[in-house]
Here is the input.
Amino acid sequence: MVAPRVYQAMAQPVVGHLDPFFFQVVEEVRTLLGYAFSTKNHFNIAISGTGTSGMETAVANFVEPGEKFALLTNGFFGDRIGEMARRHGGEVVRLAKPWGEPFDPQEARDFIRREHPRVVAFVQAETSTGLYNQGQPICEAAHEVDALTITDCVTSLGGMPVLVDEIGIDIAYSCSQKGLGCPPGLAPITVSPRALDRLKLRQTPVESFYLDLQLLDSFYTGHKYHHTASATMFYALREGLAMVAEEGLPARWDRHRANHEAFVAGIEAMGLSMLIPAGHRLWTLNTPCLPEGVDDAKVRQFLLQKYSMEIAGGFGPLAGKVLRIGTMGYSSTAENVQLILQALADALRNA
Here is the structure.
């Protein structure tokens, strides 16, 4: 859901992409992103594109042809990072787990130490499964071998602790439409000084002109034309981030955790189970398992037609086995949790 304040912010007059007021908004977004990501990084910008553009920005700028790229994957979006790295010429080595299975910390460390890659990538919040991957052991081992870490925070930013500096993440990216309560269209990204130093030493040009971080920095910082950024989307992102700062991260995390736990309690009261074990679940996206014989498409269609509620089904190996239900950003309220639980109970009885 998009917060009403964000809609109001988007009604402001559109200014040009080289207007001084636009760059004032960009600087406010830069500061607010530092807070949301829990980082002292100065390089905090928003890519003009969806979360996938943030993913490709990270890969395109920090993967060079022939360099080893270590991927830890246990879901759809982990696999997607690996495919992007392959297309950008990286030598991809994988530590793969079944979708939804957490990584053993020691196994992750051993994998990275053995492979000695140039870049290590993992998904912090795996949207395809509802799993939260612990990043500390991955980042510690990566830094031991002088590798950069790329982390997908698309479904964690604004709803769960991302903790870029504390965990040791070098490049983290997200999106505007999930935990931040804005429309899709921008991909926040933060880059550590260590990663920027590596970027400046690249031996080959970044293959993507549009996603070249140094060119983007010359636009957002140096005010040199690169592309026509949408002032309206930046108004939205600034307002969404301002709401995060006003609520405060600890309170915001507590809200998301409490509403997630209430959702899980309601699911279990129906006799259903969650795909992901306690302690590894996202607070922002929930994956209850469907009972045997229940058609997930009929459940989702029932909810859409009767309650105007849109939820997602599983895909890949989880197709037809789970539902994916968001409790994130502006929509994460106790009232909304009760609404979806009541509607889901109705759907399971009647779909």
User: Anything to note?
Assistant: The CA atoms of residues 135 and 167 lie 6 Å apart. Residues 249-269 form the longest helix (21 residues).
